[in-house]
Amino acid sequence: MKQSGNILFSGVGGQGILLASELTAHAQLAAGYDCKKSEVHGMAQRGGSVEAHLRYGQKVYSPLIEPGSADILVAFEILEAVRYLPYLHKDSAVVVNTQKILPPAVALGKAKYPENILDELKSRQINVVAIDAFAVAESVGELRTANVAMVGAMSNFLAVDPNVFIEVIDTTVKEQFREVNKKAFSAGRAAVYA
Amino acid sequence: MGFDKENKMWLSGNEAIALGAWEAGVRVASGYPGTPSTEVMGNLSRYEGVYTEWAPNEKVGLEVAIGASFAGARALATMKHVGLNVAADPLFTAAYTGVRGGLVVLNADDPQMHSSQNEQDNRNYAYAAKLPLMEPSDPAEAKEMMATAYRLSEELDTPVMMRITTRIAHVKGVVEKGTKLELPEPSLEKAPAKMVMLPGNARVRRVAVEKRMQAARELAETLPENRIEPGSGKRGFITSGVPYNYVKEAFPDAPVLKLGMVWPLPEQMIRDFAANLDELIVVEELDPFIETHLKAMGIACRGKDLIPNQGELNSFIVRKAIEPDSIGELFEPIELPMRPPNMCAGCPHRGLFFGLSKIKDVFISGDIGCYTLGFLPPLSAMDACVCMGASITMAHGLSKAMGKEGEGKVVAVLGDSTFMHSGITGLLNLVYNNSYATVIILDNRTTAMTGHQDNPASGHNIRGEAAPALNLEMLCQAVGVKRVTVVNPHDVEATRKVLKEEIAVAEPSVIISRAPCVLLPEEVKRKKPVYSTNLDNCTGCTQCVQMGCPAISWTPLTPEEAVARGYREKQKGVAQITEVQCNGCGQCASVCKFDAITRKEAK
């Protein structure tokens, strides 16, 4: 486990990527790291591809992850995992939600959603962990926790004690959603080795 | 271990700037929303003891701030880069008047055009208007620099520009809390020689401007925000803002001159730094601003011959530009279907653009907002877009160029907030100079694109308190438009009928397309019906698919598949609604002639 690193979050506007990256940042801060996180707001949020860059270490200058240097990619949608291939290196871990959201050209019948596209990552010896985050979220009784389930799955690849994440949920999530989010985190964490 | 919550906060650049403004004792702040600047004002409005407002445009906002400064209060104006074009008029003369209370112009540039129509480097404004300009490198510095900016503004008697970019505004980092400065109460004091800019006074102030810039130049030499970070080797860097971070990552051991004040430049400091180096490289985003001035000073350096002058930088780009051999192999991207942004499911604009897309040979002069997405297929209902408010004025110009030939063929489309920003004067001109273009105001009751800021027609102010709401119909009538029609864009057929009638008329005409943004909190909470597809009835006519709703998808069928599923052999496919994405607007149901879309009551 590295003492500094780069975590890239990708998905489609509205999937809860900002919250997932925020939770992860808080956990890294609580674990004693310096962090910087870059988000995109505005026009790109309207159903387009979205990304958040999180960098942690003793001292972080740049808020952006360099191509070829994302240690972990947390992708909330299959195409949005493969789209970020140039950011990955041979030792990257990709945690991907198996959900498919059709891009407009596919929804209009003008393009096809590529089949088995995750093989493109696997064939490059990248460690791909595919989880059905909606199934995990459903199992804890709240579909909207799929993003936190993804954070749970990703946490397996960090040196941070999982209890730090639980404490972060305790201090940052509204009381009525705390328990279900903690369950989603734990279930997501367990889903990787299930 | 652990995060020191007593003294530190995890804030975005915009949150940090709001905190910095509050700690610096800002009393009055005015701005117009614009990505990536918007959240500064939104956050500042949550602090006690500071008056904040959304102005209808950036010129108004800056003038409000100038007035507050003249009363001795510290004042802030916020805007995105193109907003400063609108506010340039007061900016250039406020440079002459100077200030009473400190005045900071917070300007957010958007390299890479994440959410903008152009990419401009507003450091050039500081040069042109003769103003000091500060540029932070991260949220922590942004907060600290607000204090410096206000101090300099009062010491030097000048507005100060604070230039940030998207990677400050929307970057989060660790910020240290400070304490709020207590300042004297404002007062009305007359100083006509300084505040009344008629030629006789302005000529005197013109001299003061040069004296002040000379003082700023001297001060820049010792300002702690300008600093040399020693390093090893004979290659050094001059940099500022976000690119400083990229230099530190790409060349961690190199000597760096980091400029916190980018205009005016500390000439002696730069000469001293350059004297010890064999090679000096300027790393900056967009224009060669620092580089050009260094070269004018006769200081040898490299810059834009290496570093791109377009788009935003990162540490990879900087390293590759300077040491291309140090770059390892990367995975090549794989070609995938693109995922551009789209109007939301249930967006009222869709119904209007669907209607427009069905009218042949009409030129649609567009504007800046969510509705610019009406340009994208399948609606493809926008033919021009330049800047805020230009839809109306360009439509007028188009109609004057075309004369009789263009009658019934020219339309302007803009949002409610954009109309109030800079559409009203264009409409006045259109009426005064007798145009026939039809103006469509998409009134979704908010400033949606930037995240639902209130505006003069929304009925609320920035704090959510009740405020007078502009009556758009009466305003248009007062300007002289005789034909003003209000439509509900969710009623697709009625909207199409009004569009046809009004566009055909050879006189000024306004259509107000009114329905609230589906993402407004009260709309999200409202119980809405859900529409579902009755696949047995779908004939594959694609009317609903042509609306481009993200909740509707098309499954192509081969003749064999069509027959196997009980359709006619020549049916090309079926349309289906993804119910979880449906926001219940019903536009698709109203264009379906085959009863294939049915309404289910509230979720």
How would you portray this structure in words?
Chain A has 194 residues and is α/β, with parallel strands linked by helices. In chain A, 37% of the residues lie in helices and 22% in strands. A six-stranded mixed sheet of chain A has the order 2-3-1-4-5-6. In chain A, helix 2 links the parallel strand 4 and strand 5. Chain A is globular. The model of chain A has no long low-confidence stretch (mean pLDDT 93). Chain B is of the alpha/beta class. Chain B folds into four domains: 213 residues, Thiamin diphosphate (ThDP)-binding fold, Pyr/PP domains (Rossmann fold, 3-Layer(aba) Sandwich); 99 residues, Rossmann fold (3-Layer(aba) Sandwich); 176 residues, 3-Layer(aba) Sandwich (Rossmann fold), CATH 3.40.50; 74 residues, Alpha-Beta Plaits, CATH 3.30.70.20. Chain B has 22 helices and 22 strands. Chain B has a seven-stranded mixed sheet with strand order 3-2-4-5-7-6-12. In chain B, helix 16 runs parallel beside helix 17. Chain B starts with 7 loop residues before the first strand and ends with a strand. The mean pLDDT of chain B is 97. The interface between A and B is large, with 56 and 61 residues. Strand 2 of chain A pairs antiparallel with strand 8 of chain B, so a sheet runs across the interface.
